[in-house]
Amino acid sequence: MTYILAIDQGTTSTRAMLFDDQFAIAGTGQQEFPQHFPQSGWVEHDPADLWTTTLETCRAALKAAGVGIDAVTAIGITNQRETTLVWDRATGVPVHNAIVWQDRRTAPLCSSLRDAGFEDTVTAQTGLLLDPYFSGTKLAWILDNVEGARARAEAGDLAFGTVDSWLIWNLTGGAAHVTDATNAARTMLYDIRSGAWSQEICARLNIPMQMLPEVRDCASAFGDTMPELFGRAVPILGVAGDQQAACVGQACFQPGMMKSTYGTGCFALLNTGSDPVRSNNRLLTTIAYQLDGQTTYALEGSIFVAGAVVQWLRDGLGLIDDAAQTAGLAGQADPGQEVILVPAFTGLGAPYWNAESRGAVFGLTRNSGPAEMARAALESVGFQTRDLLEAMQADWSGLGETALRVDGGMTASDWTMQFLSDILGAPVERPRVLETTAMGAAWLAGHKAGIYPGMEEFAARWAVDARFDPAMPEDMRAARYATWKRAVGATISFAG
Ligand SMILES: Nc1ncnc2c1ncn2[C@@H]1O[C@H](COP(=O)(O)OP(=O)(O)O)[C@@H](O)[C@H]1O
Ligand SMILES: O=P(O)(O)OC[C@H](O)CO
């Protein structure tokens, strides 16, 4: 038996999974690591935590499976995207903590660049918006704020990378400074059409281009691990950002296919094929995957609060002890009350991108209670997904009748998935294998290694666990969505 080791380095935990040659999971390792919030709106990770949890979870997965390293053919890596690291090329020592994708410290820099009319250039080249979410302004912040960093960068002594690059650097003992096209596409420094770093954007942000990693296809030879780490050198053959890896793991290989991942937040990616579609509705244009030099593009919508609204019911309001209780509560809600929760706890993401909004509840009566709040919380996830779908439909005519493929922790809630289908007016499919992100990374590496089948056969193996079809009458769907839109409008206008 041969295996692929998939590393999934996420925002709150690192996981490693060993997949056998039939895609069955033979062993898993998982570790959480500390989040650092040095100031309001700032989020950092210790780069050493990202690396050591990776190493330890890989070893734990091998141990759990009882598999020796000789049976591991290759490694695939998937990772939290946009998170920004800078380290010394000679010593491998980072010059600063990793600045996490959620960090808003560069909001003033982004505003001034926007005011100067630079967003058009950014969107035209990178497909992104000029937002602190992406790596570019975080890297500029490090160069501007860490003493001596700029001079060292200009002298060629510092390397920049997203988390994949940092892990590969460490796995290969500093031999490889590389990334893949999907991670590059999230930096706001990469021209997704020409497939090259943007000289114009780097110059504007004052970023020396010798800091940037070499960009490769998602299934490529990224480097070999140092033999002393696992007992043998193992090639790293697959890399993709986590949402893109989920798109691959969900086998969304045809234009018009779409996946949506419901974890803490929600990220929906729609495959638009070989043409990058420019959004008129504030969605992101990004790279879904790049294989054999061929780039496949996607439209992406990001929602900041999905499962997090359930965590708020539990930890903030104390209405439930466990996420799974929400469905039972929601089912008891009074059908006559229309309570709407807009969970803009940290502003609104796509398609609104309103950083100033905060959460709001509408339609409370004297009879509203935990059941109505639970229902409103779960429904908010469906309403927000409909917002994304509406934007995608407006941007691109190729969005067909295909079902939405879902994954992530919140898809365990049948109630939420049924409402999602009802409010979208479209089928929703939950796959049998929910580990789509790790499986996507494993497929990239295993396909390159020649132990996994090609795209078509891999796609044919995708199997449904549950399908949810719309059951809500059309007039009710329209009325309920119109109420949601009014609630969002009021939330945004309240923020001023
Ligand atoms: N049965 C459930 N009903 C509703 N929400 C759930 C349920 N199970 C898990 N969740 C939510 O799913 C999220 C966890 O999903 P996960 O994919 O592990 O997230 P992440 O990768 O972002 O940490 C949590 O926010 C949790 O509240
Ligand atoms: O680590 P996750 O699963 O929260 O995903 C984070 C995204 O990649 C951020 O863009």
Automatic annotation (TrEMBL):
<feature type="binding site">
    <location>
        <position position="11"/>
    </location>
    <ligand>
        <name>ADP</name>
    </ligand>
</feature>
<feature type="binding site">
    <location>
        <position position="133"/>
    </location>
    <ligand>
        <name>sn-glycerol 3-phosphate</name>
    </ligand>
</feature>
<dbReference type="GO" id="GO:0005829">
    <property type="term" value="C:cytosol"/>
</dbReference>
<dbReference type="InterPro" id="IPR000577">
    <property type="entry name" value="Carb_kinase_FGGY"/>
</dbReference>
<comment type="function">
    <text>Key enzyme in the regulation of glycerol uptake and metabolism. Catalyzes the phosphorylation of glycerol to yield sn-glycerol 3-phosphate.</text>
</comment>
<feature type="binding site">
    <location>
        <position position="11"/>
    </location>
    <ligand>
        <name>sn-glycerol 3-phosphate</name>
    </ligand>
</feature>
<dbReference type="Pfam" id="PF00370">
    <property type="entry name" value="FGGY_N"/>
</dbReference>
<dbReference type="GO" id="GO:0005524">
    <property type="term" value="F:ATP binding"/>
</dbReference>
<feature type="binding site">
    <location>
        <position position="82"/>
    </location>
    <ligand>
        <name>sn-glycerol 3-phosphate</name>
    </ligand>
</feature>
<dbReference type="InterPro" id="IPR043129">
    <property type="entry name" value="ATPase_NBD"/>
</dbReference>
<feature type="binding site">
    <location>
        <position position="264"/>
    </location>
    <ligand>
        <name>ADP</name>
    </ligand>
</feature>
<feature type="domain" description="Carbohydrate kinase FGGY N-terminal">
    <location>
        <begin position="3"/>
        <end position="249"/>
    </location>
</feature>
<feature type="binding site">
    <location>
        <position position="13"/>
    </location>
    <ligand>
        <name>ATP</name>
    </ligand>
</feature>
<keyword id="KW-0319">Glycerol metabolism</keyword>
<feature type="binding site">
    <location>
        <position position="409"/>
    </location>
    <ligand>
        <name>ATP</name>
    </ligand>
</feature>
<keyword id="KW-0547">Nucleotide-binding</keyword>
<comment type="similarity">
    <text>Belongs to the FGGY kinase family.</text>
</comment>
<feature type="binding site">
    <location>
        <position position="15"/>
    </location>
    <ligand>
        <name>ADP</name>
    </ligand>
</feature>
<feature type="binding site">
    <location>
        <position position="311"/>
    </location>
    <ligand>
        <name>ATP</name>
    </ligand>
</feature>
<comment type="pathway">
    <text>Polyol metabolism; glycerol degradation via glycerol kinase pathway; sn-glycerol 3-phosphate from glycerol: step 1/1.</text>
</comment>
<feature type="binding site">
    <location>
        <position position="307"/>
    </location>
    <ligand>
        <name>ADP</name>
    </ligand>
</feature>
<feature type="domain" description="Carbohydrate kinase FGGY C-terminal">
    <location>
        <begin position="259"/>
        <end position="448"/>
    </location>
</feature>
<keyword id="KW-0067">ATP-binding</keyword>
<feature type="binding site">
    <location>
        <position position="409"/>
    </location>
    <ligand>
        <name>ADP</name>
    </ligand>
</feature>
<dbReference type="InterPro" id="IPR018483">
    <property type="entry name" value="Carb_kinase_FGGY_CS"/>
</dbReference>
<keyword id="KW-0808">Transferase</keyword>
<protein>
    <recommendedName>
        <fullName>Glycerol kinase</fullName>
        <ecNumber>2.7.1.30</ecNumber>
    </recommendedName>
</protein>
<feature type="binding site">
    <location>
        <position position="81"/>
    </location>
    <ligand>
        <name>sn-glycerol 3-phosphate</name>
    </ligand>
</feature>
<dbReference type="GO" id="GO:0019563">
    <property type="term" value="P:glycerol catabolic process"/>
</dbReference>
<feature type="binding site">
    <location>
        <position position="242"/>
    </location>
    <ligand>
        <name>sn-glycerol 3-phosphate</name>
    </ligand>
</feature>
<feature type="binding site">
    <location>
        <position position="242"/>
    </location>
    <ligand>
        <name>glycerol</name>
    </ligand>
</feature>
<dbReference type="Pfam" id="PF02782">
    <property type="entry name" value="FGGY_C"/>
</dbReference>
<feature type="binding site">
    <location>
        <position position="82"/>
    </location>
    <ligand>
        <name>glycerol</name>
    </ligand>
</feature>
<dbReference type="InterPro" id="IPR005999">
    <property type="entry name" value="Glycerol_kin"/>
</dbReference>
<dbReference type="GO" id="GO:0006072">
    <property type="term" value="P:glycerol-3-phosphate metabolic process"/>
</dbReference>
<feature type="binding site">
    <location>
        <position position="264"/>
    </location>
    <ligand>
        <name>ATP</name>
    </ligand>
</feature>
<dbReference type="InterPro" id="IPR018484">
    <property type="entry name" value="FGGY_N"/>
</dbReference>
<dbReference type="InterPro" id="IPR018485">
    <property type="entry name" value="FGGY_C"/>
</dbReference>
<feature type="binding site">
    <location>
        <position position="81"/>
    </location>
    <ligand>
        <name>glycerol</name>
    </ligand>
</feature>
<feature type="binding site">
    <location>
        <position position="133"/>
    </location>
    <ligand>
        <name>glycerol</name>
    </ligand>
</feature>
<keyword id="KW-0418">Kinase</keyword>
<feature type="binding site">
    <location>
        <position position="11"/>
    </location>
    <ligand>
        <name>ATP</name>
    </ligand>
</feature>
